[in-house]
Amino acid sequence: MVSVLTRIFGFNDIETAEDIVQETMYKALQEWPFHRVPDNPQAWLYKVARNKAIDTLRKQKKLVYNTDSVAAMALMEKNVSGKIDDLFLDHEIQDSQLRMIFACCYPEISIESQISLTLKTLCGFSIKEIAKSFVTNEETINKRLQRAKQKIRSENVSLEVPSGIDLSKRLQSVLKTIYLLFNEGYNSSVADVLIRKDICLEAMRLAILLTEQPATSKPETKALLALMCFHAARFDSRIDSEGCIILLKDQDRTLWNKELLQKGYSYLDEASDGYTQNEYVLEAGIMALHCAATSYEKTDWHVILRLYESLEEIKNNTVVKMNKAIVIGQVKGPSAAINEILKNGALEDYYLYHATLGELYFQNKENMKARQHLERAIELTESKPEKLLLSRKIKLIEAI
User: How far apart are CA 354 and CA 182, in angstroms?
Assistant: First the structure.
C-alpha cells in the first residue's frame, strides 16, 4: 500500500503515504473486533486506503475544481478515484513495488543509506532491525535515513525503474537489500523467534518478481534466489522441540525440503550459464555443496574453501572472513581457524565473533577461553534460541 500510495503523492511526500497506511490499519483494529474480519481483508484495506487518499488529496487541494457544477465535480472526482483504483490492480501493485525499491536505491546516496531506506519504507523494518542487519547502532541508522530523505527531496527523485547502465548500478543495491531482508527473517532480531518465515518469503517473492522482468532477470538475481532457496529448504531442521538452534552439522537432512532444493539448483544452473563471477553465484555455490552432501562429514570442504577464497576477493567483510576461518578449521584443524580469526582483528561487540571463537576453542580443548567467549556471546545477543544454544555449550564444558 505504501508503494501504491507513494505513486499518488510522489516520493517526496512518502510520509503522507505512510500516514494513510497507519490510519487504515488503525481503522481495521477498531472495526474488525466488533464486527468480523471481512471475507477479503486485503480488498477492505485497499478500499479504506483509497478513500483516505482521495480525502487527503481534497484537503491538500490537489483535486482542483474549475467549475461550480456538482455533476462536473462528481465526474472529476470519479476519474481520480478510478485512476487510484487502477493502481491497486495486481500488476500495478507489483509495478509500484519495483518502482519503489529502485527509487530507494538512488545512486546519489550511499549504498548503506539506500539499503536502510528500502528496508524501512518498502519492507517495514524497525530501526533496531536495520541496525542489526548492518551490525551498527540505531543512532547511525536514524542519521542515514534523515540524510537519504533530505537528498531525495533536494534531488526530486522520481518513482521509475531506470534503464541501461543506471539499472545495472541500482540492481546491486536492490539485491543487497533483498538479501538483508531474508537474513533478518532467517536469523531474526526478535528475541523469542529465530526464524520469521513471513519475512523470508517476502524476500523470495521480491526476488521472483525481479526474475520475471527481462531488465532485472540477471545471473546475480537468479543466484540470490537460488541461495535463498537453499537456506529456506532447511527451515524445519533448524530448531529442536525446546526452541534451541540446531547447527548444520547436527541437522536431520531428511527434513530438508527437496522441492526447494531442486528449485535452488535450477536457479543456480541458470545463473551459471555464461558464468560471470559475482558474490551471489559464489555463495549459492557454497550452499549448493553443503546441501548436496549426504552428511556433514562428506562435505567437500576443500572446494568450499576455494570458493570462499574467491568470495573474499569480491566481498572482503567480517562475515566472509569468519565463515572462511570455520572452513579452514575443517580442513586444517581448529588452531588454524582461531589464528585466521584473530589475524583479522577483534570484534568485541559482535556476538558471532565470540560464539565462533568459543566453539573453536572448545574443539581445541582450550575450555577456559571457550567459556569466556561463549559467555560474552550470551551477553551480546537478545535471541533466546541463540542464548539457549550457547548455554548448552557452556554446560558441556562444565561437565568435562
Answer: 23
* Residue 287: predicted pLDDT: 97
Local structure of 245: helix, strand or coil: strand
C-alpha grid cell, residue 23: 490510519
Residues counted in the chain = 400
Beta-carbon contacts of 390 under 8 Å, excluding residues fewer than 6 positions away, are: 355, 358, 374, 377, 378, 381
Q: Which pairs with CB-CB distance under 8 Å and at least 24 residues apart come from 152-156?
A: 152/11, 152/12, 152/106, 152/109, 153/12, 155/106, 155/108, 156/12
Dump pLDDT digits (tens) for 121-154: 878 788 888 887 777 889 999 999 999 888 888 8
Q: Among positive and negative, which fits the CA dihedral 359, 361, 362, 364? A: positive
- Percentage helix, strand, coil for the chain under 3-state DSSP, each rounded to 5: 70, 0, 25
Query: What is the DSSP code (8-state) at residue 26?
Result: H
pLDDT single digits (tens) 341-395: 998 776 778 888 999 999 999 999 999 999 999 999 999 998 889 999 999 999 9
